[in-house]
Sequence to fold (930 residues):
Amino acid sequence: MTDVNTILAEADKALDQSLDRLFDLVRIPSISTDTAYKEDCRRAAERIVADLSGLGFSAALRDTPGHPMVVAHFEPKGATGKVPHFLFYGHYDVQPPDPLDKWMTPPFQPEKRTGKDGIVRLYGRGTADDKGQLMTFIEAMRAWITTTGTLPLKATILIEGEEESGSPSLIPFLKQNRGELSCDAAFVCDTNMWDEKTPAITTRLRGMVKDEITITGPRVDLHSGAYGGPAANPIRILSRLLSKLHDKNGKVTIPGFYEGVSDLPKEVKVQWQKLKFSDRKFLREVGLSVPAGEKGKGALEQVWARPTAEVNGIWGGYMGAGTKTVIPSQAHAKLTFRLVGKQKPEKILKAFRAFAKAEVPKDCRIDFAAYGSGSPASEIAGTSPLIRKSAKALKDEFGRDTALIGSGGSIPIVRYFKDILGMDSVLIGFGLNDDALHSPNEKYNLSSFHRGIRSWVRILAALAR
Amino acid sequence: MTDVNTILAEADKALDQSLDRLFDLVRIPSISTDTAYKEDCRRAAERIVADLSGLGFSAALRDTPGHPMVVAHFEPKGATGKVPHFLFYGHYDVQPPDPLDKWMTPPFQPEKRTGKDGIVRLYGRGTADDKGQLMTFIEAMRAWITTTGTLPLKATILIEGEEESGSPSLIPFLKQNRGELSCDAAFVCDTNMWDEKTPAITTRLRGMVKDEITITGPRVDLHSGAYGGPAANPIRILSRLLSKLHDKNGKVTIPGFYEGVSDLPKEVKVQWQKLKFSDRKFLREVGLSVPAGEKGKGALEQVWARPTAEVNGIWGGYMGAGTKTVIPSQAHAKLTFRLVGKQKPEKILKAFRAFAKAEVPKDCRIDFAAYGSGSPASEIAGTSPLIRKSAKALKDEFGRDTALIGSGGSIPIVRYFKDILGMDSVLIGFGLNDDALHSPNEKYNLSSFHRGIRSWVRILAALAR
Fold:
């Protein structure tokens, strides 16, 4: 096998051309949410197809009711025995660039600029989300193919064009092409490093289930003078219900809520402590200072490894200017439960509803309106070979332990890959917190791009072994 | 002194003409909220001025920045010694008649119709609110003057034209004419009987003070995935705060809230029990069945004699269709406190705010926005001579004990008369619960009108003694 250093040298040597190819892609305004850019989306997809075909992939643009998908396969040459097969995912569509007047350079005229801090940054819409990221694995594969004539494993590339507009075509597409797209695992390149020096793999994602409640008291809105006292006020019932969701230690009180939630393993705890995350700074950035979650748990653990019951919206009665002395007929709230471990969305929803019903007087009503059936948390053990190999490859590149981190939110693609294609996802990306995704002056550090490419060169080598 | 029965006979004899005069007044669409009817409001006022002048009042139309007032004075002839002086209040303006298509006969073409139940009703906008009511005391005075050539006391009549549009000119007008309008007491004819057989005097009105709170947590709306757990959620803080306002017995928990609230005197309790008020029916009419207020107190006592803390509106976070996984920056609620006895609005507001502040974590903020300074409760003792005489007169007319009732809401005029003119108000009216005030097919029973006139004939006699 060719020494990985030879391939890395090729990647280094080709960096300027890699950058040219990225900039060519960024110049295409492939905004998926705006139909005015439909042809641009197609052009971006076609460009990737042509590029991958040139590298020896069997690549094709695949039409959907929305924007086309790019699917490309590479069969390694001279492979013997069972060769691992992985899917690599990214998306070529980008967010709209508004407000345009806040950009220092036009969003679709990418530019490399060196800051006063000496850091070289690549500016332009999509440099970080996700064109720059998806090009890291494509350019790494190019370096492999240029140097060795092949890849060390079987690769399928799936580049979507609707990620920024809710991926409406994705589920049907995955279902229709289940056989073709099912691999040993997926590598999703759309996440961040821990910081600019520390590589990261996101191994935990919280699940989620949502509910909406409506409490109905009196048949109609009542005058609070004529009825205040004897008449049930649904806002008061709702407030009481919501206030009972947590005990004074911040724990959720719904019976059975913590079933399937395990304490954080000691080694994970130790690893996270090493990240030296500042709860103080995290809260200060949003104008807060007092940790509000479960007592005795740090912010990282709360966000990455603990379930929540949050109220996302509440409304009822008179909400206009001035006053109206009304006892409203109805009060409403929207809730989300973030899930971890083995918590089952359907069980959580059922338990919450039983809990809520018990809080409503017998002459009042409670109605529920769920949105979707929810999704459980997903987690890959840090000890799994995929994670170990990838983490080692990243450490070799960055000279630092790879952080195995969590994400408090959901990443839908991970759920779809698991549910439809039956495969786990490994989330590796090289973005940074200050990349200004979805904002003016989006950027991707040149070092993210360069070391991203080098990292994938190493990961491909590691996975082949 | 002329026998009161002579005067009552005159009132009976003149009933048809009284009705004609009422109908002439109802025909004028004096809608105060709609500028298109500005001239009609003036016409209604002028009509009353002319009518009272014809009776011997010194009556005048008095301009204001809004609709004019009618002020009229009557000096009794041949009076010796100190003559009592009372003010009689009503309003000539009416509510808009919409929705017009729901009226069985046009709102400003009054009609007398006998129902299948044999009850004769006077239909038309303003028949009950308040033209029919104010005409009861004017027609009673007419009967007195026709029969005896005078009234048995000094009378000032104040008829307002902006009651249905918030009385913007009233406070300045009362202040500018304090000397002229200050009397021994006011009689306000704009309330209901207990039921069609039972006359009533409203002797208790709850006071009120309002507040609005805004709780600010994070500086901006946060993603509930990225921050759910450690970040304070203002909706949760608000819910907890509101849920703590009442204990499990329905009592308000704000320290000092019940200062100045006395238990109901036994004789009042006994009197109210005799009214045979059905809590069950009262609640059933609005779709409820479980009394929600203070445990151990009936609905009447709760509405007439107990203070409340009610939430009139609540809002925060995402309230649209579907879901948004947000932890909002702010949550809001509007509250009203109904007051009784000697509760002081400013003290209640202060105590509530201290209570609320204590519920807010130190990194969050609470802001308050009061609307006005509130008003204390008003109450006239059932033992006061004014009430005793009026109640006796009503009993003589109806052959039933007069109910001394309360009202859960405020009647602003009572507060203004007390604060600006230093006089108590006696609230006597002949409306019924089914009069459809502010609704299509507003009506006033002929018996309300007729016995209303007769009642005032008796009350004037009683007050003169």
Remarks:
- Residues 102 and 440 of chain A are 6 Å apart (CA to CA).
- Chain A has a mean pLDDT of 95.
- The two ends of chain A are 10 Å apart (CA to CA).
